[in-house]
């Protein structure tokens, strides 16, 4: 049984008023740079940030540090991960900033969306493009004017609505392999996303032309109680061969955390070395001000374990040096 609580009103009013011309111009530049880089592959893409954005003050401190690091790493194209909503295998747990909890523990989506937009706007003003997960299709409408890099998660990549919506995006879109690690399935998803589609959305019949900027994200798998890593030299070569055989974009991103790390954030450091050796085109990593995870702790992940900002800087500098030495 559905129980309708209220219409979302404050958020829609905020969206119509706050996106200034300067922000739109900066965001459009980010979109263009990311799309061009996917085609030219001049710089190594790094999508970096907390598992789930939570506290605006902590996130601002983190983003300032990340921007300072990015400015020193010219061979990297750094994108800020600002995930506004989080899925969970069993449906329980912290759902993300979009699901703002009031003092009496009720969800206020209006307030949550406002807070998320403010975090994204501040990120753009600092000079970093924004990445978010395309988890709830209706929330796409709330953030599409600010997000330059969308990701379709492991639990959504086989879903028809998510595939169809991603096929209409005019920005770069990473598509993760399913939670069991099956790369064949994500290749099917990329084919669907790259193709024109017609489908019902928000009370209308819509048509898309296909998204040529969609690419695979290898995030490992979990099957029969065992985590499996899929970013080795052999794994990446097989993925690229599969994509090429199907006429798909062979741009490969490695997710250093999640199943690839066994959900141990420190393993991202070793995974980065593996990914570089494997010849991937970019990485996604989870980091925040402090390492670990603990609900309610300032600057610490509310969900998955994250790398601290100091180790993040060391790692990004090492990756940048790797590409500098390859020149």
Secondary-structure element series? HHEHEEEHEHEHEHEEEEEHEHEH
Q: What characteristic shape results from the CA principal axes?
A: globular
Task: For the record, give the distance between the C-alpha atoms at the N and C termini, rounded to a whole number.
Answer: 60 Å
* Largest sheet strand order: 1-2-5-6-7-10-13-14
- For CATH, the homologous superfamily is named as Aldolase class I
Can you give a write-up of this model?
It is a single chain. This protein has 327 residues and is of the alpha/beta class. The protein has one domain (30-325): TIM Barrel. The chain has helices spanning 10-18, 21-40, 56-72, 109-126, 137-143, 160-166, 183-193, 233-245, 267-278, 309-325, and strands at residues 44-49, 76-81, 100-101, 107-108, 130-133, 149-152, 172-176, 197-201, 204-208, 214-218, 221-223, 226-228, 252-255, 282-286. The strands form 4 sheets. Strands 1-2-5-6-7-10-13-14 form an 8-stranded parallel β-barrel, surrounded by 8 helices. A hairpin with a 2-residue loop joins strand 8 and strand 9 (204-208). Helix 3 (56-72) packs parallel to helix 4 and helix 8 (233-245) crosses helix 9 (267-278). The longest helix is centred in the N-terminal third of the chain and has 20 residues, at 21-40. It starts with 9 loop residues before the first helix and ends with a helix. The model has no long low-confidence stretch (mean pLDDT 92).
């Amino acid at each position: 049984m559905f129980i309708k609580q209220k219409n979302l009103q404050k958020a829609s009013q905020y969206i119509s008023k706050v996106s200034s011309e300067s922000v739109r111009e900066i965001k459009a530049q980010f979109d263009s740079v990311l799309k061009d880089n996917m085609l030219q592959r001049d710089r190594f893409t790094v999508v970096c940030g907390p598992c789930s954005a939570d506290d605006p003050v902590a996130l601002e401190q983190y983003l300032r540090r990340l921007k300072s690091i990015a400015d020193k790493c010219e061979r990297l194209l750094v994108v800020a991960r600002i995930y506004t909503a989080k899925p969970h295998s069993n449906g329980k747990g912290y759902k993300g900033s979009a699901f703002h909890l009031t003092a009496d523990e009720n969800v206020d989506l209006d307030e949550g969306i406002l807070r998320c937009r403010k975090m994204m706007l501040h990120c753009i003003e600092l000079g970093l493009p924004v990445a978010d997960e395309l988890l709830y299709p209706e929330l796409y409408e709330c953030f599409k004017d600010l997000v330059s890099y969308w990701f379709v998660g492991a639990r959504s990549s086989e879903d028809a609505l998510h595939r169809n919506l991603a096929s209409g995006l005019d920005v770069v879109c990473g598509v993760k392999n399913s939670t069991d690690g099956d790369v064949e399935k994500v290749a099917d998803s990329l084919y669907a996303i790259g193709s024109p589609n017609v489908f019902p959305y928000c009370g209308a019949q819509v048509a898309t032309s296909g998204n040529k900027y969609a690419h695979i994200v290898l995030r490992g798998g979990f099957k029969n109680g065992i985590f499996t890593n899929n970013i080795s030299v052999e794994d990446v070569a097989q993925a690229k061969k599969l994509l090429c055989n199907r006429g798909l974009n062979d741009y490969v991103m490695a997710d250093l955390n999640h199943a690839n790390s066994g959900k141990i954030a420190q393993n991202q450091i070793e995974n980065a070395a593996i990914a570089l050796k494997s010849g991937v085109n970019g990485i996604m990593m989870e980091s925040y001000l402090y390492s670990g995870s603990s609900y309610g702790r300032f600057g610490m992940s509310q969900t998955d374990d994250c790398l601290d900002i100091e180790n993040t800087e060391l790692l990004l500098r090492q990756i940048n040096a790797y590409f500098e030495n390859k020149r």
